[in-house]
Amino acid sequence: MKHLGFNSQELAIFKPLTTPQKIQDFLETIPINFERDGETCRSPRRVLQDNTVHCLEGAMFAAVALWVHGEPPFLMDLNTTADDENHVVVLFRRNGCWGALSKTNHAVLRYREPIYKTLRELALSYFHEYFLNDGRKTLRSFSQPLDLRKKKYRGWATAEEDLWCISKDLDHVPHEKILPVSLIRNLRRADPIEVAAGKIIQWK
Predict the structure, then answer these.
(1) What percentage of the chain has pLDDT greater than the value 70?
(2) Closest CA relative to residue 48, chosen from 34, 64, 72, 71
(3) Which of 45, 47, 52, 66 is 20–30 Å from 162 (CA)?
């Protein structure tokens, strides 16, 4: 793993994270990055240094944890309407089926077991959880996997600068629509109890 650029102390943190479940459990112990001093897109090394993480930073951290143990670091973007925020998850496969690692502060949009035969099935599992406070469902498309092993991202795992290039590339990866416009007009809003449950947060 010398090519990733981590020192021995950093590798010692990743070494026991041998399964997606262990990676997810470790992610849950890192407080949410509320970006109080401005937007960030920090590398896994900086996440370890600062001990805070948001959605995309958590995805990149989980991706490199998989990579340390020989699995590909694939990100998938979940794209929403303009009045909501995208979410990024990390893909992994077991027995030919897809699962996802996810960092979020809310009770929804979380880890997915590897039970989905296609990426579309996996993305659809987030559809009914993705809504605004008024109940409007906002998930519209999902991306093809973004492979962080590409040469253009060399050094990303330990970069000191913010990784806006990865954030930008996620927006430009080909996306597949989840539903046609004709269905969007007739979507039922989430129930008040669903909205209330969605407001449960882990870190205040």
Answers:
(1) 99
(2) 64
(3) 66
Per residue in 133-158, pLDDT (tens digit) is 999 999 999 999 999 999 999 999 99
Q: How far apart are CA 133 and CA 73, in angstroms?
A: 33
Other CB atoms within a 10 A radius of the CB of residue 6 amount to 20
Q: Which residue has the tokens 């979507």?
A: 187
- Give residues with Cβ within 8 angstroms of 116, minimum separation 6: 97, 98, 99, 122, 125
pLDDT tens figures, 47-75: 999 999 999 999 999 999 999 999 999 99
- Say whether 172 sits in a helix, a strand or coil: helix
3-class SS letters over 98-142? EEEECCCCECCCCCEEEEECCHHHHHHCCHHHCECCCCCECEEEE
